[in-house]
Amino acid sequence: MSNNVNLLLKVSNLAVSFDTVEGSINAVQGIDFELNKGQTLAIIGESGSGKSVTASVIMGILTCPPGRIKSGEIFLNKQDILKLSETDRRELMGNKIAIIFQDTLSHLNPVFTVGAQIAECFEVHKNYTKKESWDKAVKLLDRVKIPSPHKRAKDYPHQFSGGQRQRVMIAMALALEPDIIIADEPTTALDVTIQAKILELLAELRDERNMGLILITHDLGIAAEVADKVIVLKNGKIVERGTLKDVFIKPKHKYTKELMNSIPGKFDQKYKRNDNIETKPILEVKNISKSYDTIACDNVNFNLFRDEIIGIVGESGSGKTTISNLILRLIEPSSGSILYHGRNIFDFDKKELFNFRRKVQIVFQDPYASLNPTMNVFDIISEPWIIHADFLDKKLHQARISELLYSVGLQPSDSKKYPHEFSGGQRQRIAIARALALNPEIIICDEAVSALDVSIQAQIIKLLKDLRNKFSLSYIFIAHDLPVVRDLADRVIVMKSGKILEEGNVEEVFNNPGNPYTIDLLKSSPSVEKLLSN
Amino acid sequence: MRKYLSKRILSSLLAITGLFVMVFFLARLTGDPGHLYLPIDAPVEVRKEFSEKHGFNDPIYIQFGRFLEDLSEGDLGYSLRKERPAIDIVLEAIPVTLSLAAVAMTIALLGAILIGSLAAYKPNGLFDRISRVVSLTAASAPDFWIAITAILVFSVSLGWLPTSGIGGLPYWIMPIGILVIRPLGLLVQVVRGSMITALSSDFVKTARAKGVKEKKVIFKHALRNGLLPVITVAGDQAAAIANGAVIVETIFGWPGIGKLMIDSIMQRDFAVVQASILITAIVILSINIIIDIAYAILDPRIRHK
After folding, report:
1. Does residue A61 belong to the interface with chain B, where contact is any CB pair within 8 Å?
2. Are the Cβ atoms of A101 and B202 closer than 8 angstroms?
3. Does A126 touch chain B (CB under 8 A)?
4. In this predicted complex, what is the ipTM?
């Protein structure tokens, strides 16, 4: 071992496999890295790269079986923690090393107050009384900037927003002032402005306590914002390592280069729409408002032309999805109208509405939830034709499905398979094929690439562009991720609290944002460009 | 929460009213009580007098009107057979059944939580395999057969326990034992299933990452989440016992509500049938409301709805 006094953690030759019915899968194949005090190490990788498995092994929460640690040593304070007894190991967990998870709603216990969950750290590791532990928990909530912590400590996880829950999670990890915090995709589910604040808080705490931070992420932008050192994982192997700048500016490995090229927002190969084809919009959203208990959508106006892609960006609660539901006429507006080729869709009778439904289709965010697991691809794509029986003769279904699968980059033979046999990106292709089935004019993509890895995201965006060119489609592309919108959209609409704050051509809005909120959004959006331009 | 509860209570009252109307008419479909209460060769005049005295020869809607009138005064009628107010008879029987149900369910629930949780901790482990076979057998065992076999073995052959009747602890062992078997078998399976889900939840990972001891991970973090479906099934089972542990009560001669209901139907003792069904319905609906409250106590997300 080296005599580096700042060394906190040393992982060497770690290999983990999972025993399944189809044999053993090598999830992590001999990786090694070191972490020093006050340092942030980013572990970058896409789904299945083994990054979260590595974190589970370090934390001792890998489920064995099916998981199996085949080899390796993990030195924490010159002690191989894999060789410790369970009791000794437990003593370290939460105490010397702590973890922050991605999905805070499922990782916090729903039936205990957040105060109790934070206080539990002290009850487990120190002999504090209940009262002392509780007071400490309240102090921690204050430290992570939860307003009125005395009151909020008595609340349950579901009563907090996503950003606040992540703060609670951080408070819990901080409780015993560990040497190392592992943050496993800590901001993936959060809005960009909140994400920026959480990352800022983590960096602040790291510096304050000289902690080591391991940041596990698939988002290169986030790594570029906070990391000092980077390792890139693919299929359980480290393919590249080095300082942040080395890896990002001069990537050596083919995969890293590919990743860097997949980063959205580079603004190239733009398809130029011919503005003169048609002057009449196909869809006119006019003064539309919708209120539930609160106002979800407030006097929104915009037009969509043939062959155009409009990006709607905004954070959760901005009214993006309400707009999409209104255009699909899944909900009725409180006031206002939406004209489709000049006719208000809310005046349509049953038959007109039925025909309108063919023309507007949607692709949802989560391809794991939006495809019925009990239907095969053939049934999924042909279902619209069964509902709209006059659209296509039954004999032609198979041929058309083959065509559609081909145009979304899948094989005709895939039509007999079921959704679980596909990866996330492939599933999203199936969802797109389903949306195309009725030759629509408009496709609404509601966060359609948000759940995908960057390289897959880039492929789907390319596919969407190609399909637009091929079929003259118009898209309403709803996203919280600004760079993706920049890549795909012709025009962009920025929404907040149900209102449109800014609208314009993508180049204009991104280069010269007029509204302070847009400026804030762009600034918060983690980007590799800032690093590269330095 | 309060609003929710009052809504539940209101809808329960509606259900009771509907049930009541149904029971009144159904009971009268069983035939003329006179046939049972008078000697087979009773002269026509005697029969007529009997019917007139009890109002059985009035049109049924008049009988129903009279029944409602009495009910509004809290009068549930008079038992033909025992010549006492029906409600008194029912109120004597119900505590017998309720105490059987309470003891049996407590034992079944606690046993199931312990066995089910341990089985869920290592699915497909040795303990899990054994408990799965045993619980499946228990859940599908016919209680009348077990009861009779138990009497044969423990009372007749070994002479350890009394064959039937009410009394001290020895009298409770067999009835309770038999009432526990089926709910225990069923609940072990439910606890196991919901604990496997709870133990593989993300918040259990968080607890382990905090260094919480395994015993606490199971019985504090996972159990409270895993209990919700268990309570629903336990409530159903408790209701089933309260509804009359007919077989056990009959075999062991316990004067509970199940036995009373069967006897009064056989005897066309309409007032007692009605009164026992009303009281049982109230008990079952109360159990349901208690389950709702338990749900709210266990899960804050329901409380805040």
Report:
1. yes
2. yes
3. no
4. 0.75
